[in-house]
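Anyone have tokens for Swt1-like HEPN domain-containing protein? Sequence:
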Amino acid sequence: MSEGNDTKDQSGFEQVPEVPVHVLNTYSRLWQLETWLRTMVYVELRALLGDDWAKGLNPSSNSFQADKSLTHMPTPEMNALSYAQLSKLTELIANHWDCFSVYLPPKDLWDAKLREVAQIRHRVAHFRVGHVDDLARLKQFLRDIDKGFWTFCTSYNDMNAVIPQESDPIAKHFLPFDPLPWVEVEEKTWAQVGFRDKSLVVGLSVRSQRRPWCREPLEAGMPGHLYDFYMFAQDGRTFDLPYLLERTRTLHHHLVHLCLDDMDRSVRFTVPAILGETMIKEIVQSWHDAAGSACRRSPLRPPSDLADRWPEYVIGSSNPLTFLDPSMPCSFFGV
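Reply: yep, here.
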């Protein structure tokens, strides 16, 4: 028992007697829904529009300015969507419905359900007790969209090698950095065979992922695809990740995500294909150069919360976007 009437369980959760548990649970589910909705909107707009993804948003909104003015209690969020209202999120989805329809119920049902969810959100945000069925309705909504969000998340890890590598100008350009490239072992059959080239300090493999709403083949400069770069230290080396992140900071706004590895031996970053051949080559070359200078023989353990110290585009290995793939069926929202 702590001071006053608050109680705290082993996880550190403080239960305040005056706050109904069902309201807390409803808030938790709303948090889950809205944060993943932001992530979905962010990824698909990046794939569609590249660096212009936030054109319909105000990155210097009053909410953003008010938050950042509190310099004594800084937060890492920089994504314009983190300061957008739910209504803005749903507006963006409606305006680009072709990019989201593959994940969501038919639009008339989606709109009707959202009206209920928005009202439940108002009740929680304005500290009202709400209706006894609010939580049940919200959980049913999560069940309705569970498969769609699973499809969204697993598609992010459904990457493929670009083969033949010479067929794509970006994969071809970085082929010398791949210590074990793909070869055609027989007609239309490709494999990674042979011996790894250990003379390369930093290896780089080029993969790609097609967003589920896209029907066109991979082509630099066209929307709907992400280049997926996997960069890894070789011969027992590790990356000084804090140094690498600082060294590449000016390039981060071009990335969709930067995925960190617990073992400090690799990083993965995704770049919209729509940025075009020239820009993508420059971005990746700069990353590779920085990675070479960030390699260390003696392991340097970065802070366990390194990803949390950076804006939303930096994600750690516990984030489902880094590991959940189509071979892993599950309930996405746990409902």
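The longest strand covers residues 202-210.
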